[in-house]
Structure formats: structure tokens, C-alpha cells
Amino acid sequence: MITRDANVEELVKAYQGLVGFLIEEGLPCVICGEPFWGSLEDLALQKGWDDDRIDQLVGRLNARYQ
């Protein structure tokens, strides 16, 4: 199960296509020249997301990758 505190680097390694999914969601994590390797929640908060939006993202991730 994917959670808010899941490490982005570990998710990218574990789930094929995750980078593209995150980019589509507005959360680029590895293409900007400065890779982000914190938690999924940290990445979303850095982009200005609120708790509800993060929870929705986690739900979509689990529906797609679990």
C-alpha cells in the first residue's frame, strides 16, 4: 500500500510508469534537473497541495498500482 510518507525514490523504482503519472498530476520529481527524493507528501506540499488533495492522490496511486 502506498502512503503519504512513502519515499519518492523507492516508489519510482517499484512502480513502472510512476514518473509519468506524477508528471500528469503536476508533481514532476525527476525531470527538472533537481531530483526530489523525499516523501510523496513532502513533494506535494512543496508544490502547494493541501491535505485533501494529497489524500486523493494517494487513493489514485493505490487504485492504479496495487
Describe the protein in words.
By secondary structure, the protein is mainly alpha-helical. It has one domain (8-65). Helix content is 55%, strand content 0%. The protein contains 4 helices and no strands. The longest helix has 15 residues, at 51-65. 12% of the residues are buried.
- Rg from alpha-carbon coordinates: 11 Å
Helix content: 40-55%
Head-to-tail CA distance between termini: 7 Å
Summed over residues and divided by their number, the pLDDT gives a mean of: 89
| Total discrete domains | 1
Biggest beta-sheet profile: none
* H and E string: HHHH
Number of helices: 4
Structural class: mainly alpha
Number of beta strands: 0
Strand content: under 5%
- Overall geometric form: globular
Quaternary assembly: single chain
Residue runs with pLDDT of under 50 for 5 or more positions:
none
What can be said about this structure in brief?
This protein is mainly alpha-helical.
Key structural traits:
4 helices, 66 residues, mainly alpha
Give the helices and strands, then pairings.
Layout: H1 8-14, H2 18-24, H3 40-46, H4 51-65
